[in-house]
Fold each of these.
Amino acid sequence: MIKTDALIIGAGPVGLFAVFELGILGLNAHVVDNLDKAGGQCIELYPDKPIYDIPAVPECTGESLTKNLLKQIEPFKTSFHFNQRVNSVIKNKDHWIVETSDNIKFETPNVIIAGGVGSFEPRKPPIQGIEKFESKNLFYSVKNKNNFANQNVCIFGGGDSALDWAVELSKIAKKIYLVHRRDDFRAAQHTVDQMKEIAKTGKIEILTNFQPKNFLGTDVIEKVVIENNDKTIKEINVDSVLAFFGLKMELGPILNWGLNLDKKTIVVNTENFETNEKGIFAIGDICTYPGKLKLILCGFHEAALAAQECFRRARPDEKYVFRFTTSSSDIHKRLGVK
Amino acid sequence: MPKVTYIEFNGQEHTVEVEKGLSIMEGAVQNNVPGIDADCGGSCACATCHVYVDEDWKDKLPEQSDAEKDMLDFAFETKANSRLSCQIFLEDETLNGIVVRLPEKQG
């Protein structure tokens, strides 16, 4: 069990800035995120797209914003727990016991939900009842490529993940079927060229303008049925299926924590952004209140105010004193300013 | 103001007036039309504002950008008339009366 002053769910810009606001108050924090790196939507959805409304930063990208926020919180040596989501938040007197999908447990007085529009989950093929095949021979990522040796593998998708794995697995699999809904691929051009080159040997069969129609099999998928744009049907015998339809955002387990919700957002007060549960805060895009704007800059403000209440809960015996970063020697010490 | 008719998957129709300059996605969100999620808020980055545009209107629409085509790869059950509604703007009266049908689900 890891004890921490605050557990932050979501490593997007607002979650990262919450680390800073807690840090200058002398509070430590752990951050959990379902992606494999910090940045949230800024990195996953629009790393290269420009952002023009960060105060005093006339123009930046999602990527550069994330990089600068990480630099800003460097002094606090924060622990990040990536590739996992928070599954449960359970009350234990004044504290919360938080458990992740990788079974890491935290005890903390403060849980800050900075989860954007939810956690990123793989988007599944639009076929009913496929859950029974998941983790048997239907996968949304490759954990161990050797599992696909000598297999007939059907890969869905037209982006980098789909094509990278088509090329990579073609070296060990019996045959790869690459199914995509149109002729153009989103993947890097050199990977597209590479795949087309391998296709000439017959190791990869490229099936474009096809979409998944059905997966047949009792225990595992034995046959994939795909449909062409002109409605012709094709069946492929497979040993395993990889579907790379990108990621979507889902609120997920947050729905079960007893928090007051309004559509897909969590209701908070505007004094400290606490939810209906003491010690659970929601900041950034995931929270709502009268006048709420889904702007990064509003999330920063929410992080600053939530951190004050986190201090009171984590240090009930200490007096809270408001200080400026410009002049406070305590803050300078915490930031490592000489 | 241009009128837009949104038809939900269950057949429920909503005809609303949308201010010029807004997108079909924004028209749905501002008028509480269910079935368009628009998770990313209109930056063509999530494919949760997917609609099917009625055949009569297909030719009047602006061309699809590469970004929209790429993003549509992620939409649920795309068809030849699939579009992302955040990329269709109601600049003038050209699209007045347009009918879009919503998919069974977004993403």
Note: The first helix of chain B runs from residue 24 to 30.
Amino acid sequence: MQRVPVLKLGDVLIVSIQVDLEDQSVLALQEDLAEAVVAHGAKGVIIDITAVEIVDSFIGRMLATIASMCGMLDAQTVVVGMRPAVAITLVELGLSLNGVRTALNLEKGVALLDHLRSAAS
Amino acid sequence: MSDDRNMADDRNMADDQNMAIASSADVVGVRRLVRSVALEVGLSLVDQTKIVTAASELARNALVYAGGGDVRVETVRNGARRGLKLTVSDDGPGIPDIDQALSDGWTTGTGLGLGLGGSRRLVDEFDLASAPGKGTTVTVTKWAR
Amino acid sequence: MSVHADVARRRVEELLRAHEEQAVRRWAEIAKASPEELGEIYQALLSVLDEGRDDFADVRGLLADLSRSRARAGYAPADTARAVFGLKEALYEVVEADTDGVEAARGFIWFSRLIDDLGLFTFETYADAREKIILDQAEQLLELSTPVVKLWENIVAVPLVGTLDSARTQVVMEKLLQTLVDTGAEHAVIDITGVPAVDTQVAQHLLKTVVAARLMGAECIISGIRPQIAHTIVTLGIEFGDIVTKASLADALAHAFRRSGFQVSGGGGAHVAIRAERV
């Protein structure tokens, strides 16, 4: 099983998924992220799925779980870079990832986090 | 590989590929296998993504509910159209109520219950054969547009 | 084949060989085609008959070439078929002059049928070629008829015109989503002013696209919904939920401007100033 690395940039954690996601890797990522958010006092999490070719119901559900979990730990989560084919497939599958914020790319994801933070303060 | 060699046959036997599902790493393997065949058959990017996602759901179902199973990927032909046929079978407990299993949100496991019903929406043909104690076989086909 | 028919057939073959030059020349006159081209077909026909085969693949190949080149030159398919039929007339003159009239005449019937088949084959070739052109054009039209245009920084639009079928809607929508990735535009306007009618499937595709765009991090606005279409959608019981819909493309653009922090000011529509608000 490959672990997905969690990077820290200021008070934002960045996860860029570059491997074929095994269920265990997703579960491990969920734990790693929760620990990292607490350890670094992160206020934002960006999950980059630009390189992810498929998101099935398991992976989709984990994205939603990560978002609500990080929310409880006071960190906003943004999923960025979802491919059109992946988005169309998720819609057909019946998964709308309610409660997960999304942005077209990493840059817009960072901007969205900034915006959310300025709106909150 | 020659496309014309088996033109008359409904399916090309040489292209049949089998794989066993025994661990979650195999689910990733099934995705790769289905992706490569989908590419060869000429499915569009969106259709490739749909059939690979359906394969991932069905393979995980076999793993979670039956502890494992077998996958067969074939290329099929209908006139000039080519397609990919995927069969996932297991020797698990089987499904007592198929209609219920196909409805969204119904699950006995820890999933969302979108696996079977969702997979059905991602493919062109869907067939489910199951009985309690007799295992489950799901056969799906996706045709190139 | 009876003995009679066999003898008759052989007689025609003899005549074809003996009077090759005359027949080809006459055929070329009747068909208004080059003697070289027709001579080649004539030769292929002879060699098939020589070997007593019933396999006309070579002849058909040459005829297909002839059919294609004449189609390109603007001849109607009937002209090409008629040109092939011309060989009957050319040979008839030879048969008429033949001393052994009965056998030749009987054989001519057989030959005539053969030429009819070959003539009709050129027609089929023509139809196949046409079919292929139509298919190619339909595909090109699918590509052509689906432009995704940039309206402003961060805003793109797809003006849909004409009848939407399921296949076309799907192509447009996939293209729109890809454009969002390529341009980074966060607002997309789907304008259906030019769409005469929407059925359940098309409405579903539109909805799915809006949801898919959201999953990717972009917002869609649907504009130009005609009263009849609004009526259909409501009657069909399709839920548009919280999807933004606007009466006109202009309203949709104004909405997108507001959402992306642009301010539109001016009076009477004569003067429009746009100022970007830096965030």
Note: The mean pLDDT of chain A is 92.
Amino acid sequence: MSTQLASPHIAASFAPMSARRLLIFGGIALIAGGMLFGDIFAVFILHQNGGQTGQALLAACEAASAGNSLAVKEIFQNVGSLLEDHGTKVDAHVHMTDAGYLALLLALLQPYVALPPKRRKLLAGLFVIGGLLLPVGIFLIHYVGLAYSPFVVIGWASVLADSAGALLIVVLLAEAYGLWRFRRRGSLGGELELPIDRTWERRALMAGGAALILLGFLYGAWYAGVDLYRHEARESQILKNMLDAAAAGQGGTVFEVASYGSLAAEKAVKIAAHSHVIEFGLLAMLLSFVQPYVYLSDRWKRGWVLTLLGGSIILPVFVLLEMNFGLVAGGIADVGGLFVIIALVGMLVGVLRYSGHLDASGATQ
Amino acid sequence: MSPARTILIVGGITLAALGMLYGLHYAVFVEHQTLDRMGSSLTQAFVHAAERNPPSARDAVNAYASTKYDYVRQVDIHSHWIGLGMVLIVLGVAFEQVRFRGRSQIWIAVALLAGSFLFPLGVILQTVKHGAVFASALAIFGSATVTIALAAVVWGFWR
């Protein structure tokens, strides 16, 4: 078993029912939940949704070719609904994982937030609630629509999502105020600084995470410089070709719709690879700070670290390879995502064991 | 807290809050209207094609492309400011482990913060005038600054 548990400093930095403990549990749970949702979305919804959108576009071309503008309008209402379905699910996934990252970040910053412990705990609770309600609201936008809404374009689910987003902003501003007070007056006591150690797990996660982020930046710069404008120009050109063919009542729209779908897929995988490699790098760096609280043997801890870093490379690389190897690469990418989720849950179990052990030993004393 | 850590942590939180405020403003006042505009331009393009009016269809595609150009960049600034803010905060907490002297640490921190602010700012300025050279140059300068500073941080972790 890890010997770090014996350190009274580490135990004191993870007090029962403290803001930090709430933020670490809430943060890891939000990240794992967001990633699981993303994996389910990728396997069961993403490709089917893309196929339906392509079919609807083809139907719109055929309706335009037949000179039926009424049918075109009807089809585009369906396309709008499909795009909203896709967009809100991606947003729910992104916002849930990002709220988790922010929760872990706030856990790290607690020693520098000069606010009374009760207020810090309240803020931590509000942040976790906001982090949960924001993606739930976004997810519901497609299903609730404008039902019973007094607004013209904003439904109740959007109101829920926007209110949760505002709650997160208020908490962040309060934490920033606490940091400002710390600069002026110093600590009010409470959470201790995180222990600084250079164990293998921490170094591997910290250096591996920074390298992943750097890789993501470089790839993002490459994408912006080489692909972004080319993709935008190609999209317009494909749409114009599609419409010219439809207006002339010629064939060839199937080819143009296929090109449009292929372009959309290319854009999606490149952006997904860029964002996922950076997010996983950030996650690895954040988890390096949590390692002293993972109550597992060194062998298991290293195993989870390697699983996380391995999944963090597999997912973006095979997402990119989807353009060449299709669903096989997509399946391997999903397995990579699953590796990250399993490693995350493994670490969460270690933290739960740690807190249970700590609380039990505190109770016996 | 060392000056470099303060720059990164306070700067990171400010950047994340700025990104969120922008996102909230965008979601409430701009996004739905923009998506509606994009959808209606595309629908109009196909309706014009059905009416055998290719020039109007092309104009509608151009309007769609122009709105989408703005939309992509408006969403990008929200996600990049928040994402870069989070990276700055994490680096701020771990900055003691970056093996550089105090002055070098401060310069790296300043470069990270400045680049993280300027890169998305350059991206959003591209929507004011499409294809503006200054905006693109600002985005490139910002992203290059962040990338070089991050490479220095990775080196600092390894040393």
Note: Residues 19-190 of chain A form one domain.
Amino acid sequence: MGERTIIPFGPQHPVLPEPLHLDLILEDEKVVGAVPSIGFVHRGLEKLVEKRDYHEMMYVIERVCGICSFIHGQGYVQTIEEIMKIEIPDRAKYLRTIWAELSRTHSHLLWLGLMADAYGFESLFMHCWRVRERILDIFEETTGGRVIFSVCKVGGLWKDIDNDTLKRIISELKIIEDELKPLTDVFIKDFSVQKRTRGIGVLTYQEAIDLGAAGPTLRGSGVALDMRKLGYAAYGELDFEPIVEKDGDCYARTLVRIREIYQSLDLIRQCISKIPDGEIEVKVRGNPNGEYLSRIEQARGQVIYYAKANGTKYLDRFRVRTPTFANIAPLLKMLPGSELADVPLLALTIDPCISCTER
Amino acid sequence: MAFNVIGKTIMKSLFGKPATAMYPIIKNEFYPNTRGNIENAIEQCNFCGLCSRRCPTGAIEVSKPKRKWEIDRTRCIVCNFCVHVCAKKSLSTQRHYTAPMTDKAKRIYTLYGEAEKKDA
Amino acid sequence: MAEQTYNPVTSGEIIDRAKRYVQEGYRLTQIHCTKTSTEMFIIYTFEKLDLTCENLKMHVQVGDTVPSISGIFPAAFLYENETHDLYGVNFSDMAVDFKGTFYETSVKQAFSMTGADNNE
């Protein structure tokens, strides 16, 4: 047994753009334990619901995170609509699904780039982000913003996408898919990439369930749990199955995300072929009263929103439980036994978004 | 397992056109929907103050007696909520972004309405 | 979506209830605390792999000590530390106890005050 050393990892680290701090307990080069501490960017956004009315709050919630911004907004308005018993028009549901799936694609592409960066494959990183740029362009064209969209509102949407643009999006998706294929092949087939990802940070099926893992981390361990199966928005009318990989290592988690990108592109095509014409919003009257806990699927995993309203225009409490928070416990399970050099990679495979986690 | 799977992509980008544009020479084209910055057609504004009350960040200040409409460009998050709530439809979102500034005082953008018109 | 129920639970029963959920194949999804001007409670959410979900609601006060369920659901320690740091509810026998250093906020137990308390 070697001597034990404690190495602080983060919050500033060249690989992780997120302020995650881990105290790594090492024996020689092997990690034997890790203690996380977060709270570096705790902004108390949840507390702001007491001062902003529930319409304005949508814009604040969307800014919890810069990557899953649309899905945060969607989750928030969905929770409020559930409390107020508002049924939004079908077209709005489909449009929300399209934007949510585009968000998922762009988040996964971003993650693939960062993953390549984590094992030093800089050119792959840039190629992934080049493809991602096309999705951001679709966003800017349809919503007006590249990362913060501000199109959701309680009772529907602010903006519609006309059918010509929808057609153009389909042809754009074809280009994205063609450009993506050679890049994802690198993640799947390349020898040196597999050297860094295969068999590293294994999380077994039972551990993933017990530790409350979420999203690709969970599905990479063989658990077919996808909140989209609840059928919120238009997901109930679309044909898809949760993507599952058995191995539970870094490679499996990468594969889940790659296959989810293609699945998302397929879901967008399904949405565009099925989208009905009609209104995109309903009138909202009165103030919410009651409580609701909704679960939806973000790019990073299951996210939980809980809102408690008291009949005034200010909510009593709004709670966001982000997937990264749920994935910290599995990360702590993966780390012991790994090499120090693999720690950034492992921290990255849960797709950490600490700003999200701390709100 | 295979070696050098990315080779083809590298060759393509080696001989292809760059993915980025030479920025100051070639300017990015914005879409009609792009949310750049908030403008106020002051002659239509009735200084009701609805935009300042509904602004999530409190960037807008309106004073009815002074007939003044003021926005702090650095606080504004261009969420478009003021444009949606404006009863007179005098607010609009422009396609271009706020230009960079070297002087902090310039972040505040003030417009005055014509005072005499109302009295007349 | 279906109506949601929040089954009431007391701090004495929580360990037994959690054990029963483990046997039925549930996993812990989240724990969070809510404080309004009139009440304060902790909600435990459990879900099964077939997407069914159950909620438990436990009424507490600031400073109360609640038995930790992190011995049964290992993931609980994060949520319990969070609740402890932001709301000042103590948990006994946590699997990993950060002793108030999980969230290092400048104001201790920042969320245990509601807007109404601040105005007083």
Note: Chain B has a mean pLDDT of 80.
